[in-house]
């Protein structure tokens, strides 16, 4: 199992442990990620799930996403679907939101469910805050997120893609962003899986970024950020032990590379606290994190 597959599998296991999905659904999603029943059962147990004999006789349905009553930031500007040339003759898909008077431009990377309405909304909110934004669909080469029957299949497919392809597609997206934004300074943000992708691009000799804000994303193994000049604001959640285990390594890599950086841990919240369509959403922390993110871009992109 690759590091990204392991991360995605652990996310499924923790969703079950936290009561967001029933055991049967967790096993289905783990099977899509390539885990047989013994390995899936062992992973659930290792992450704190009770044995099947101790579980309720009937599984409860998966948790219903909370309504987006108070998403962080301003009302989003509209996004439009776009395509642009990717590596090796491919065509990549994205959602584009243009700021009225852009102060910079931001690449947005989605969570493990692909390019969703929530991520499009984040791009629109950044545009409303003055930063034209391009939200890349990392499943473009498979036809795009919308072609998958459900989010679990999209997640499983992301787990089959290697880091080199992710990096190549994100670099192509930065090129498209530069063209559309008229050459202004570039920033980047990503959430969960997308936070990990942000760390990955920072570790991939990408000199065009001036600022990056990864949200609770896992750090790649042996991360080397000497090839970037970006100022990095890392967002973490206090109740996210799995991702927080890489926080010290991120601090060390940023310091070694001599990058301007700040790592902020929001108290009393868990993984994915920024996603206003999810059960872990915390409106107060999300609003504060949005302001920190925009403030970071104001300092390093304007």
What does this structure look like?
Residues 100-300 form the Dienelactone hydrolase domain. Residues 50-72 have a biased composition (Low complexity). It comes from Nonomuraea gerenzanensis. GO terms for molecular function: hydrolase activity. InterPro entries: AB_hydrolase_fold, Dienelactn_hydro, Dienelactone_hydrolase-like. This protein is 39% helix and 19% strand. It has helices at residues 3-17, 23-32, 37-46, 117-128, 151-158, 163-181, 193-202, 241-244, 247-257, 283-300; strands at residues 80-85, 91-97, 104-109, 131-137, 186-191, 209-215, 231-239, 261-270. Mean pLDDT is 93; it is low at 54-68. The longest helix has 19 residues, at 163-181. The chain has 2 domains: 3-53; 80-300, Rossmann fold. The N and C termini lie far apart (42 Å). The protein is globular. It is of the alpha/beta class and 302 residues long.
Task: Detail the topology: elements first, then pairings.
Elements: H1 3-17, H2 23-32, H3 37-46, E1 80-85, E2 91-97, E3 104-109, H4 117-128, E4 131-137, H5 151-158, H6 163-181, E5 186-191, H7 193-202, E6 209-215, E7 231-239, H8 241-244, H9 247-257, E8 261-270, H10 283-300
Parallel strand pairs: 3-4, 3-5, 5-6, 6-7, 7-8
Antiparallel strand pairs: 1-2, 2-4
